[in-house]
């Protein structure tokens, strides 16, 4: 019997922004080139949302964060959202919702990410980032936490 491994429907969203320019890092997905987003990822076994956020930032943009770093801010907010139909094949049958934990990562200045899971990146204004992403929850996190900083 073949054992299928499905994605966990617990995830993180990490909005990275540069304090010096107040611009947001947006990443272009490989599996949908019209989809731009912040760092996202699924919780693995025995991970907390914070450890997942740290791991995903390292994997997706090559930035190493210390566990004790105050630059990674837990918004203490999580939402339920509907998984886009064209991404549901990654989840167990009948799983249509995802529980996402929100984080912000404030860095001093823009950097060139080391991409391993995305096609391209752009540093853009929060307003542009909101327009770029297809993810309404990604847009809401930027609207709620980054536009307030300006």
TrEMBL record:
Domain Nudix hydrolase: 7-146
Keywords: Hydrolase
Cofactor(s) needed for function: Mg(2+)
PROSITE patterns associated with the record: NUDIX, NUDIX_BOX
Recorded GO MF terms: dihydroneopterin triphosphate pyrophosphohydrolase activity
Pfam families, per database record: NUDIX
Enzyme Commission code: 3.6.1.67
Descriptive protein name: Dihydroneopterin triphosphate diphosphatase
Lineage: Bacteria, Pseudomonadati, Pseudomonadota, Gammaproteobacteria, Pasteurellales
């Amino acid at each position: 019997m073949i054992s299928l491994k499905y994605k966990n429907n617990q995830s993180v969203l990490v909005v990275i922004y540069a304090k010096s320019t107040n611009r947001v890092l947006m990443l272009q997905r490989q599996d949908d080139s019209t989809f731009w987003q912040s760092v996202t990822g699924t919780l693995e076994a025995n991970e907390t949302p914070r450890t997942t956020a740290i791991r995903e930032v390292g994997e997706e943009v090559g930035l190493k964060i210390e566990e004790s770093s105050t630059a990674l801010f837990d918004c203490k907010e999580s939402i339920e959202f509907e998984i886009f139909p064209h991404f549901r094949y990654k989840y167990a049958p009948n799983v249509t919702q995802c529980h996402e934990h929100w984080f912000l990562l404030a860095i001093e200045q823009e950097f060139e990410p080391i991409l391993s899971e995305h096609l391209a990146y752009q540093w853009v204004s929060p307003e542009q980032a909101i327009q770029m992403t297809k993810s309404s929850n990604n847009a809401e996190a930027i609207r709620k936490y980054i536009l307030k900083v300006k």
